[in-house]
Amino acid sequence: MPGKKPDQGRDALLLADLAALREALCGEYAEACNEWGEGGGLGLFRLFPGLDLESWAALAEKHGLHRWLPLPLDQAALPHLSLYQQTLDRLAYQTDHDPLTGLANRRSFERALDLEIERARRSRMPVCLALLDLDDFKTVNDTHGHPCGDEVLKALARVLLENKRRYDLAARIGGEEFALVLSGVGLVKSVEIMGRILSQFSAERFQGAEAGFSVTFSAGLATYRGGVSLDVAEFMALADKALYQAKGEGKNRIVSAPLPDVDKVTREATQVHANEKKFLFGK
Amino acid sequence: MDNPNQTLSLAVLSGKGGVGKTNLALNMGYALHAAGHSLLLMDCDLGLANLDVLLGLSPDKNLQDLLREGVRPHDVVLPLEPGGLDILPAASGVPELVEMDEDMQGLLFQRLNDLVSRYHFLVLDLGAGINRTVLSFAKSARRRLVVVTPEPTSLTDGYAVIKVLASQHGVRDFWVVVNQAADAREARQTFKRLDMACRNFLNLELTDLGHVLQDPTLVEAVRRQTPLLKFAPKSQAGRDIFSLAVKVEKFRTDSLAELTKAPVLGPLQATGTD
User: Fold this and answer.
1) Of A91, A271, B20, B257, whose CB neighbour count within 10 A is largest?
2) CA-CA distance, A80 to A177, in Å (whole number)?
3) Chain B contact for A61, CB < 8 A?
């Protein structure tokens, strides 16, 4: 009977076969196993007459064989193609999202921030970057355990999602470090928004090992208005410096970085200078 | 045809407020009308319009209404004098409209085009300051008339608006009128200073259109909400303004062929993004 019941002997045979092939290939041709080289590649086929998709999925899960592509030969292609699609969707999501909180991850955050900087530069509309860092998060983990720490991370993610506008980006960019990109928002308004987020988050109560507790965060804000050229790293460094200052001043607060492009607000090119005034006043 | 009546659009601007810009625009309108021309006076001071106030009018529709569906330009225009001296009033106290973007302005020009091309002259009375609306109306008109007084503040602001239009928008031609001058000598000196600064720093030459001397009759006319050229056409300021109008009229007569080539308002040719 093909494949309906677990077949220990068959599974062992299959795995041994795959392991031998993997060893042979990945020892001598390690590059071919890991990288997409130029000029195509080779797919290796081997028929396993007794195996169906269901059993293969179980096997792949158990032994981490996700890189092997099953191709059923005795039925329509649709079921297994949709399986590929699901896998691709899952991988695409994982590429851009933090699995614990569902927020954007660092990689997609940096990509979005780069676009926002470009937009601000061209349109001269501000963009605000907020870097958030949970205060004394190590103590939370040490005192109440990591599952409890995870709850705190998820709670902050929820508060960020609730308070941001649809087109703002909330991201988890490190263990206890989050970021918010506020599009079209200047310094004054962003301080207001972050203040609201901080007070809402610090009012959350968590159930710890022994007693309830609450957590705060510190945030550094930087605003860019497109006056000077600035890249992602420089923008991050500005906000990070403000964050560092917030920590130094006692945590649980928001500190704004100085505007990087304030000098450019008065446009050099069109200002009426002293020597021009001399002509105008006949002196 | 783009401009069937060879309408000359003239933007009147000053940088500084309170230099008599609106009065000058209004009375030039009366003078040109007296010379037999049709003319539309458009209040482009979208934040703090006062052309209607100067005339004692209280219009119920204005320029901004043109942006709404179903409002026709002819519903908004008010006749000042029979025979084609009309005004297009603007609304006061609508800060959102001060910074009209290019889409809004494009729509406005589109709605206005049929209307304004019926007149010989279109005079745009621009607001004070150097905001986006002032700049784009100024560069959309075929000619610009910068009003200054001999005061240093007015000279500086007048120079500033010329500098921005020249360096950021490529506008090179400006007519200058010195208003509220004590005498002809002071007027000449004022023009010369502004012209020297422009030659030295902006590499452009200004055109001296003339001057209007200080005249108490003008103050009286404003108080009575009656245009000077109607109230006292033979006064000193009245005669000065009339001679300015004669020069503007001559310019139009000399450039009829050129005027037919482009629409009344809008860029001469499509330019790239700023």
Assistant:
1) B20
2) 39
3) no
pTM as predicted: 0.66
Complex ipTM tops 0.90:
no
Q: How far is CA A51 from CA A1, A34, A56, A78, in A?
A: 10, 27, 7, 18
Residue B132 to chain A, least CA–CA distance (Å): 14
Q: Cβ separation of B159 and A276 shorter than 8 Å? A: yes
Window 218-277 of A, Cβ < 8 Å to B: 269-270, 272, 275-277
Distance CA B44, CA B63 (A): 8
Q: Which CA distances in Å does B217 have to A111, A237, B39?
A: 67, 65, 24
Q: Give the E-state strand segments of B53-119 in sequence order.
A: 78-81, 85-88
- In Å, how far from its chain's centre is CA A132? 14
How far is A144 from A131, CA to CA, in rounded Å?
25
Give the minimum alpha-carbon distance from A249 to chain B in angstroms, rounded to a whole number. 41
C-alpha distance from residue B37 to each of A110, B26, B81 (Å) = 63, 14, 12
**Token code pair at residue B57:** 């009018």
**What distance in Å separates the CA atoms of residue B139 and residue B168, rounded to the nearest whole number?**
11
CB contact under 8 A, A277 and B164: no
Residue numbers of A annotated as active site: 176
A272–B156 C-beta distance less than 8 A: yes
Residues B130 and B14: their CA atoms lie apart, in Å, by: 9
**A280 with B201: Cβ contact below 8 A:** no
Instruction: Determine how β-strand B85-88 pairs with β-strand B78-81.
Output: antiparallel
The dihedral formed by the CA atoms of B20, B23, B24 and B28, expressed in degrees to the nearest 10: 180
DSSP state of A172: E
Extract the runs of DSSP E, i.e. beta strands, from chain B. 8-13, 39-44, 78-81, 85-88, 121-126, 143-148, 175-181, 207-213
d(CA A274, CA B40): 40
Q: How far is it, in rounded angstroms, from Cα B65 to Cα B207? A: 36
Residuewise pLDDT in 10s, chain B (274 residues): 578 889 999 999 998 888 888 889 999 999 999 999 999 999 887 766 677 777 777 788 888 788 777 888 888 898 989 989 999 888 776 665 566 667 777 778 888 888 899 999 999 999 888 888 888 889 989 999 999 999 999 999 999 999 999 998 899 999 999 999 999 999 999 999 999 999 999 999 999 999 999 999 988 988 888 889 888 999 999 999 999 999 999 999 999 988 888 888 876 544 433 3
Please enumerate in sequence order all residues whose Cβ is within 8 A of that of B45, keeping only pairs 6 or more positions apart, or say none.
Answer: B22, B51, B90, B125, B126, B127, B128
Residue B197: which of A269, A270, A280 has the nearest Cβ?
A280
**DSSP three-state, residue B73:** helix
